[in-house]
Design brief:
By secondary structure, the chain is α+β, with helices and mostly antiparallel strands. Helix content is 42%, strand content 15%. Strands 11, 12, 14, 17, 18 and 20 form a six-stranded antiparallel sheet that branches. Strands 3-7-9-8 form a four-stranded mixed sheet, with helices on both faces. A four-stranded antiparallel sheet has the order 10-21-22-23, with helices on one face.
């Protein structure tokens, strides 16, 4: 084992020498999820304690299980920081070295597994290195740091092997339970993956005769108890009750046969596609076992088919060809592989079962459950090749017939080198982390003093272009610059963000944050939760600003300007001010002069308008009135199909509707189609996830259109399930529309201008 450790350390030293020399100066990925992971871990280490993370989603913060900060590692760094050690300043180094340590440990654990399966020392050492460095989780280094520990699944598998060898030794059950819980505090997928793998062993072993009852109940308890304890801990510590129940991706982020059995990285990908057809491979679907293992699968499949044909009418005993623990693991990991493919939920007859999966739906990236199969099947491949080589040696096959094994191992080694070397080249581009994370040498903080301001004068940072991602409802992307700059300033100042980049975020809290960008006709409910009257530090970075974002900038006072960032002071009074009083005074003068049209509407021009308030609909969960349109099924709901409100007008119109923002599913999209003489001549779409007008639990989805010449019919559709819609309005952009709701409140273009 020492030789395996030295060889693994040598390879990592060669490929990642720059990281090992300056571990605090390299981001494994300096954007997206990678940068977010570094930021949340560092902010927690510097400024938080316990189970609360306060760096985003101000003023609520978040339970530290959700923000992708690797709680176990963050707790360790935070603890050292509180003891007076400079650990928080070295968050990048600790995170990077922990990830590389996980990669280094992987061959050692696999070596231990191979030796338990009675493979020779030298051969086991070589195969451990090949299996370890081809691990698909190596590609997670950077993008998903919390998922980049390839040693975790083999550690849990080793415990399962020892359970089967010594069913009465409780230390292996305890070690499995404790290890899986600790791994769950790095990333919950490891907990789920390990426990499901063990439960699959229970299922497979239950068909064994005689059935090992004592082993089965101990295994089942060791698998279920960590899941129950982790779920109970979340229930006790997580105060949020409106996390999205149906996160996007359950049947999207799944594994595929192409992702498991065909190469995804260059140059092997190009070689494969030039010779054979290959399907697309998504990042979440990558669990590639290697060309050698794929070949062994084909050969094994043919041999099994031949064996079945020869033994027609007799019992098939595949376990004779391998040790029983490997045979059991192969079946168990195969069950998880099938699950990672989305089976049976991808089949139409079972598609309705997804809604009954409860908390299991939160594990939306099913492709990650293929990881046990990678380790088990490559181990089986190593065993298969060894047995075949030994068989030929025993049969005294001519020496010239034996070089196939070195050639296959050379191919395997080449793919493993590509896997780890490709990632090392990517990491080499991430220099500059030390300066980015520096709190002492942040120029923006220094420049604030030139404007007679300091960080303590503000209570939070609002970045523009604005980003809010993770709720599976709203998806405002911001810009790469605004995300990077606000992370940098937040670390330097300790100020939290009025933005969010966290999975499973509270829907209600997200809506309140996005409402900061809403129309001046709407209240900003979030401000009532602020613990301080201090102003907001508005950070404007590179990127296109929406009209709503430009309005916020116009309300703020400039402080400093640099080539990358402009800082403004935004007072709470300016942020919360509305124009309802002005609009109400304007309406008081206009309304007596405007004729009443159908549905009680008044318009400021003679152009045609259309209002559908759904007051007579059977669903009584309306927004302004009692009725609303409701469609539970996933389909295109037709909200309007009729003539253009003003047939002769080819000007610009706005089609708007309000959807309920707290239904179980996402927000979908609204579509408008224009027809002339029955022919479709225009089709436009509005992605509701980009909406920023929020009124309580209701979200306004609007789509500006230009009516084409000769158009005689409009069709307004909404593509979603669990759809609750109210107040469809079609109006010319130069026309304001007034009406009164059931409580006699005055409504302007869908906004109430009276309390």
């Amino acid at each position: 084992m020492a030789g395996v450790g030295l060889a693994a350390a040598g390879l990592l030293t060669v490929l990642f020498s720059f990281v090992l020399a300056n571990p605090n100066d390299y981001f494994f990925l300096a954007a997206g999820d990678g940068l977010q992971s570094y930021y949340v871990t560092a902010f927690y280490a510097f400024y938080d304690a316990g189970i609360h993370f306060s760096g985003m989603n101000y003023p609520f913060g978040e339970n530290f299980t959700y923000p992708n900060l690797q709680p176990l590692i963050a707790l360790f760094i935070n603890g050292l920081h509180r003891m007076g050690l400079p650990a928080a300043e070295r968050t990048i180094a600790i995170t990077n070295l922990a990830a590389l340590l996980g990669v280094w440990l992987t061959p050692l654990v696999i070596y231990a597994i191979l030796r338990r399966l009675h493979m020779p020392i030298l051969y086991a050492g070589l195969m451990a290195l090949l299996i370890g460095f081809l691990s698909p989780q190596i590609q997670r280094l950077g993008a998903h740091m919390s998922l980049s520990y390839p040693c975790f699944v083999p550690i849990l598998w080793y415990c399962i092997l020892r359970m089967q060898e010594a069913p009465r030794q409780f230390r292996w059950y305890i070690l499995f339970g404790v290890s899986s819980l600790l791994m769950g505090l790095v990333q919950v997928y490891f907990l789920a993956c390990g426990c499901f793998f063990l439960l699959a062993h229970v299922l497979v072993l239950s068909f064994q005769r005689p059935r090992p009852i004592a082993l089965l109940w101990r295994m089942a308890l060791a698998a279920l108890l960590p899941l129950v304890l982790f779920r109970s801990w979340l229930w006790l510590t997580d105060y949020v009750t409106d996390r999205p129940p149906n996160p996007y991706g359950f049947l999207v982020y799944k594994a595929t046969p192409s992702g498991v059995f065909t190469p995804a990285l260059s140059p092997m990908r190009e070689v494969w596609t030039a010779l054979l057809p290959a399907g697309d491979i998504s990042f979440e679907g990558m669990s590639y076992v290697g060309l050698v293992a794929t070949g062994v699968l084909l050969v094994s499949g043919m041999r099994v088919a031949q064996h079945v044909w020869k033994r027609r009418g007799h019992k098939l005993r595949l376990r004779r060809a391998m040790p029983t623990p490997l045979y059991t693991a192969l079946w168990a990991s195969g069950l998880l592989l099938i699950f990672s493919f989305g089976i049976p939920f991808i089949f139409p007859m079972f598609s309705g079962l997804e809604k009954y999966l409860g908390p299991l739906k939160q594990l939306r990236a099913l492709g990650r459950f293929a990881w046990p199969f990678y380790f088990v099947f490559t181990t089986y491949t190593a065993y298969y090749l060894y047995r075949l080589w030994r068989y030929q040696r025993q049969r005294k096959v001519a020496v010239l017939a034996l070089p196939w094994l070195p050639l296959l191992l050379l191919l395997w080694a080449g793919e493993a080198w590509i896997n780890i070397a490709t990632k090392a080249k990517e990491v080499a581009q991430g220099a500059g982390a030390r300066a980015y994370m520096s709190r002492e040498n942040n120029l923006l903080v220094q420049h604030l003093s030139w404007a007679s301001r300091q960080p303590s004068d503000f209570q939070a940072i609002l970045p523009l272009p604005y980003f809010n991602n993770g709720s599976d409802k709203i998806a405002l992307p911001g810009s790469e610059s605004s995300i990077a700059q606000v992370y940098k300033l937040s670390i330097a100042t300790g100020l939290p963000q009025l933005s969010s980049y966290m999975p499973r975020a509270s829907v209600g809290q997200v809506l309140q944050h996005v409402q900061l960008l809403s129309s001046p006709l709407l209240d900003k409910d979030l401000v009532s939760h602020f613990p301080s009257p201090k102003p907001i530090l508005l950070l404007v970075a590179e990127g296109v600003l929406s009209p709503a974002e430009q309005r916020l900038v116009s309300l703020a006072r400039p402080l400093i300007s640099s080539p990358e960032v402009k800082l403004y002071e935004l007072s709470l009074a300016a942020l919360t001010a509305t124009t309802r009083a002005q609009e109400k005074a304007k309406a008081a003068n206009l309304l007596p002069t405007l004729p009443v049209r159908a549905n009680g509407v008044r318009a400021t021009t003679s152009k045609g308008v259309f209002l559908q308030s759904f007051d007579t609909s059977p669903d009584r969960r309306g927004r302004l009135g009692a009725g609303a349109f409701y469609e539970p099924a996933e389909k295109f709901s037709i909200l309007y199909d009729g003539p253009v409100p003003a047939p002769a007008d080819t000007g610009r119109y706005e089609v708007s509707v309000w959807i309920h923002g707290k239904m179980d599913e996402g927000y979908g999209n609204m579509q408008v189609k224009q027809y002339a003489d029955g022919a479709l001549i225009d089709h436009q779409l509005a992605d509701a996830r980009l909406s920023t007008d929020i009124d309580g639990d209701w979200v306004r989805v609007a789509l500006p259109i230009r009516v084409k010449p000769r158009v005689d019919r409009l069709e307004v559709l909404y593509d979603n399930s669990e759809l609750l819609v109210d107040d469809l309005l079609i109006r010319p952009l130069d026309t304001d529309v007034y009406w009164y709701d059931e409580q006699r409140r005055l409504i302007l273009n869908g906004y109430s201008i009276e309390p």
